[in-house]
Amino acid sequence: MNPHRTAFIQGLPKVELHLHIEGSLEPDLMFELARRNNIKIPFSSPEEVKAAYQFEGLQSFLDIYYQGANVLINEQDFFDLTWAYLLRCQKDNVIHTEIFFDPQTHTARGIAFETVINGIDRAMQKGREELGISSQIIMCFLRHLDQESAFNTLKQALPFKAKIIGVGLDSSEQGHPPEKFKEVFEAAIGHGFLTVAHAGEEGPAANIHNALTLLGVSRVDHGVRCVEDAELVKQLIEDRTPLTVCPLSNTKLKVFEQMSDHNIVDLLRQGLCVTINSDDPAYFGGYMTDNFMAVADALPVSLEELQAFTLNAIEASFIHEQEKQKLVDKVTHFSHEFFV
Ligand code: ADE
Ligand code: ZN
């Protein structure tokens, strides 16, 4: 790629809205935590772990991903995981991030909710103070489990409400549509949480429609299969409903065969509020800059359009208007010299 474009992508201030903290667990840290906590893992080296990351689709990834999370036991482990991610954010000029975590992945193993949230939150505070990176937490319900388990999780979260901006829905989309969680999302909204949901990743466009109408979501995670319903696309454009798209995830999980087939630039040009995110960067081969680079390498996209992904993410973020304006100023100030 030409050096001017590379420098622009590297330096561009970025905002991440779709990042599973468990998906930022790098093989090296997985090994360190396994040793520290005396947990057996079915790999003999970090290189062997990396070699195992070949996925046929979402489920084959999730099976390995939930197994990887078994090494996370103590509050310090969740701190170390989150801190490592924030240091990668600093390297990629990520100035704001909204982080997902999956409480049920941990509470099902006997880890207390507070152990998880306190470790993540402490790293986020340090990130604000020492790295100048602002952040929020979104807790996701696992959709392959039942709604009762989600209700339990919501209850466990209430004492920590001040630390959690919203609730989301992730895991296996096929066979577990949004309507399965209608009541628990209603309850979450009643408690003042914002809502988001993974929809239209492997599942049909109807899941996007139902996430919007039944779960009251402010953003749709992935959402790339919206193109199968022209009426829905029209509505998403009109409402400026944000889609948190994850390009490297989509190719790694075969939602698109290759990056040149990805619809992200088409969606942007149609006027959708699309954003670029990393999803599970330790598993999919890249953090924010890598995702921007992969899109810019494979698809015809201008610097102005690359900037638009960040401006869309600021618009879609769960921060106050005044804070949004500060981030917009940072982005436009950075881009200025590239555009003249
Ligand atoms: N959990 C972590 N990454 C996910 C993805 N891409 N889709 C659904 N659930 C997930
Ligand atoms: Zn995701």
UniProtKB/TrEMBL annotation:
The domain of life is Bacteria
Cofactor annotation remark: Binds 1 zinc ion per subunit.
Q: Where does substrate bind?
A: 280
Q: Which residue range or ranges hold the Adenosine deaminase domain?
A: 13-332
UniProt cross-references to Pfam families, sorted A to Z = A_deaminase (PF00962)
- Tell me which UniProt keywords the record has, alphabetically: Hydrolase, Metal-binding, Nucleotide metabolism, Zinc
Q: Which reaction does it catalyse?
A: adenine + H2O + H(+) = hypoxanthine + NH4(+)
Protein family (similarity comment): Belongs to the metallo-dependent hydrolases superfamily. Adenosine and AMP deaminases family. Adenine deaminase type 2 subfamily.
In its UniProt entry, what is this protein called? Adenine deaminase
UniProt organism field: Vibrio rumoiensis
